[in-house]
Specification:
57 residues; mainly alpha
Amino acid sequence: MGRNIIQYQIAGGLMAIGLVLWLITWFINKRTNTREGEPVGTQNVGKDRREPPPRGD
């Protein structure tokens, strides 16, 4: 162990911040119907008016 307690407190705080940011991202993606790695703006293509998705020409 041998490290100062403040280093563990800082590390814990940074981990907590990371967890909060991950949760915010997860909730936003769930609310906007996006999936991981899906480009923004394509998640509802073909779903609202039963049109096929655009071709990748």
